[in-house]
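Question: does this match?
>
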Amino acid sequence: MKRRLKPETLLSELEDVARRLYGELRRDEGFFVTGLCTVHGQTLLVVNTRQPVAERIAALAGLIARSEPDRLYLKPAVREEVERHLLPEYVRVDLKESNGT
């Protein structure tokens, strides 16, 4: 039987992974969605605390899924959430194969 994390715990775990990948993580509230942004030439991750926890989890898991999550150790419950946000194999494009090199 798989052990499920509480949503708040999963969010915290995903934030820790996101910090390892992207460096600075800021929590703020406003009229924006959780994601990467560039401020004064610096890319940082902003988490909108007004968004429901489920939306923040989905946003962070999606970002992590697009950043080569296999190179990191992820707790099983965190990896499961990240893998839910991976693109299917048939949608992924290998740029080396697509341009003939």
Notes: The beta strands are 25-28, 35-39, 42-48. The radius of gyration is 15 Å. Helices lie at 7-22, 53-65, 76-83, 95-98. Confidence is low (pLDDT under 50) at residues 90-101.
